[in-house]
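Table 4 source record.
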Amino acid sequence: MSAEPSWQQWDYSTPSSSAWDPNAWPASGWGQTSGVKIQRNMQEEDRWWEVASRPGPGLLPPTVEGMLHDQDHTLFSVTATVPSNPPPSAIITPTKPHTPPSEAEVRTAIPHPHAYYCPKDNAWVLISWKSSAMDPPTSKKYTDLLKGLPALPIRAQNSSCDKKDAAWVSNQTHHLHKYERVTDSSQLTPPYYGLDAEETVKQKHRSAVVVEDPMLMDGIEGGAELEETGFALDLYVCCQCPMHCLASPPIPGVIDASIWATYTNDRKNNPRVGYSGEDTVVTSIAKIMGIIEALLWHAQSRSLKIGRTFIDSIGFNDNVKTLFASLGFKLLSNEGEQLLDPPSLESTPAGRRDRSKLLRAWVEMGAWLADFKRRNDADKSSFKTSVTLTPAREMIQSGIGSHLDQIPREDFSEDVRYVMSQASPAFWEDLGLTRTTATAEMVEFAYYAQCRCDPPSTPKYFSHLVNFVQALSVVGACPSSLEELVVRERSRNRFTLDNVADAAAILGFGHDKALHIPYEPDDTDDPFIENAWTHAVKESWRNMDERAQKDADDALLILAQMRRSKYLLDLHANAQKNMMNPERAYQALEVPSDVDDTMLMTIYSMRTEEQPLQGDKWRAVLRTLAEVRNSDRLRQFADSGMDPGELNTITRPDWPRGLNQLGNTCYLNSLLQYFYTIKDLREAVIQASKSLDDDEKLSDDDLKRHRVGGRLVTRREILRSKKFVAQLTQLFLRLETEVQPAVTPTIELAKLALVTSKDEEEDEIEQGGTDSSNDTDATLVDDGPVRIPAEPAVTSPKSPSRSPGSVLGKRPRDLPRRGSTMDVDTPSYTPMNNSPTQSEDSPPPLIPVDFQEASGSGSASSSRRDYDVEMQSVSTSKNPPPLPARKSTQLMSDSDMMFGRQHDVAECMDNCMFQIETALLKFDGVSDSQTETDKTSVVKRLFYGKIRQNVLAQDETLEKEDLFSHLPVNVGEEGFDIYDGLGQYFYDVVDYKDQKVPMQLSIVNLPPLLHIQLQRVRFDRELVQSWKSQAYVKFDETIYMDRFMDDADPQKKAQSRLIEDELNSLRERLSTLQRGKNGSFQGALDRTREFLLQTRSDFEDVDDEFLMDMDELSRALHTEIEELHPEIGSLKSELEEIWENERKVPYELTSVFIHRGSTPTFGHYFFYSRNLPDSPDQWFKYNDSEVSVISKEEVLADTTGSTANPYLLVFARKDSNVVDTVKRYDTLPDALV
């Protein structure tokens, strides 16, 4: 979409679709059709998706009224005069000259001529409105908040939107746009600085010196005008006339509202003897005002004795002390007596400030008292206040256009009030309406006004209108004018947000639709929508459904307009003009629809020979009929011009089979295909299934013989795991023997793989069942070299806990998933503490570095349990909060593919491996040793290695060994390879005993199959949401793990660490320059310079020297970036040279898991597998039911700019022969028979 000029940049002399022309629409909008007066641009309304720069949503005056101040509170205009009360008899003639406050000074004690007092808040609100031929005042400090401010030439075309101010108006009422905090109170006439700053500003004007108090200069930018020292005001601008309104937040009174409320309530609830509560309040406040008057007008500056009379008339407690402290009084003690010493009112800056504060407080007390006496019959006191109040509500309403005479309030019927009460808050907020003014006329005006000022949101406003009209129609109370409005708008091809959802569903979006994915506007690109539309159209052809094709075309248009996509809009327009359909295709070839393919090809060949220049047209005809008939023969003939004959669709017997998707299970299909390629695992599963005994009786002693995942398993889990292995065996055998191109996994297998036993149990409990997992006294048992004495709680295990993270996400570093120096499993761990210094990419310490009693590297007594040594990750303030738990849902029937709590790939892999290991346990009494069991476990043997961790503290070295199944690599920025990622994992700095200490990891031994997990999910703390990193991570066919081994050359390790530290520092600097918080710094400078060149006449400080400085800074940044690239490359080469001859531990790439999608929660999974051992240069792509051959170059390709990225790499130890990708039988195996 082309960028539009801002409102201020429009050329008003030439009418166009991008500039408002007052003559482009009738004054009454729809002429005789609509009685609502509103200026509109019909051309813009008809092509709303093309309009960009408008002021945005607006507000009607009654809504603005409610935003100016709490409508339950009454605002008053205040008038004050010099008090006429006679001076107290105890007044002592002042010894120093004293000038009492004059009438003028009393008047200026009111904050501003446009200030209104609120007794409930004991606060003031500045509200100013005017219709002016000049733009409203705006502060230079808030220029960035003024985007879309309607330009004065447009607004000046109408003198007023208020019927009272003009004989004829073109708009029903004002349409006001709010700009928060864009005007400084010092720009008012007269200016207002605030009570505390006012004297300082005056002094600054007098002396022309810098203000010394930094608090009074808060918010003043360098070089700012002296006058901009007030506080921010909100600006409301009518987009159709010169009227604007300024409003402040509440300006607190001298005495805090809570202190004042506490005082008045206390006096009312504890009245003086012989007085009512109300009279006590009046006399007490009168007494305080008398004290202030004596001080201001009679220079009575002696201390006040806190005696019986004072306490009786005013009271005395902590709140009273605070009240008088607010007035500047100080509490003293003299010979056992308490005194209140008044503030000095000498002619000094501090004295003048105290004088102003006392005078303001006196006015506020008088105003509050006047309102109190008005509301209560309380006037025993002879005290007469010199402050009078005038209610300001109607004056404010008239000023902003919300008065009853301007916008009547309706007494709606009970049915209408009910409908309004049920309307969503968004309806009122988005349309800028209030419940009491939502007449048919005002609803229509608000709808048109919002569409005019916020065109891209037209579908949202039409949705609100339709919903409101439908609700009124249900109760039979909908005005005909609104019904007609909806009909008119529908005739102009308006659509609602529900129509957008329906359009997406027509194109196949939705879990139960053809694409099996939801429609996420931000995550779905235009070409994908084009493909979805093409598929829907072809389906309509095959079904000979003309209505379905029209629906697909309409759906494409709706999504194109909603997305404001020129690409899709052009696609739709071209389709309407040129797109072939079956009827046109048959007509073009002049053949009936029942002719066979051979005859179609013959006639097609004749037409192309007759009209060789129309070849593209005839190919489009034949391709259309190929889709209608779903004929591969016609497709190939259209593409190549050669008849392939009758195609044999049977897949080669030696070709791997695909897996049909059961519904959003593409990642499960990838995982099952991967398991099938592992020879030892496949054979172990098939062999074990022959001897599975579901009726095997197991005693409690049998159950205590083995542990999986660091804990004992339950009978339920054993039975469930055997079912899983039996189902997996049947799938494996079908993959070996299936004739068809793809196999469909059973729903039972999918449930067992996707839903853990624990989730299944919880669902049963939620459905009223019982927790059947507690059928054994099994307890968690862990072993390890570092132990901390504690009394572990004894629990009954249920099932393996779900993995704490996502393969795409920030899973905790994977090494503690098995936890001890021996081959003893430990359960997955969860974050333990919140160290503020640990980096978010740090591995979790095997040794709890924050535990002050952690011992050295020796092993502890085997009699002490390791249960309380929490093998947990150290989280930090940088780490994102955990993703919200998936909602628990009931397990569905076999026909429903929503399997309750579904998990990601890593959790699914954990669950599958747990069940395989559990099902293969031997309870025949041959071996009672857990070590022997671990040695025979195909899962541990294939997937688990051992890692050592060392924490090098100042006075000790802590060491720990553990098993691991994945090595994580955090993917953030571009320019990293697999060695860089692993290097960051194997070395980090952690907090231990108030010191930062290095933590080093090294591999003791590696498994035959090495999983490297590319963690792509990052967390944006400003947006508070996760996002997927699409960064390319370079990897090759072979990875050499020598540098990460425990026995690697220590000197080379030390050299590498120094280079890596410098390399990481340079990369961080480059990332900061190229990808700052708001983009490239150099790009920002260049754009700023270009902008200033174009608008330099508007900025006095922008001269040639300033622009030259910007050029110099831009060149310096460019030079630094250019120098960083070769420096980083040189260090990287130097690092690789250290290890170039260390190639004793080679691992070869065998499998790559791919996630295609722009977000972690959206996309598609597929899987690459190398054809081992027969054809190592050949790769297969398993994409659900489709299996195809791809090149090695595609697997290793640079994915920069693509959303299809690797997230899990599988390497096999060279010459280990653990992978046998294609396993096919020509005859049916005995096991399947």
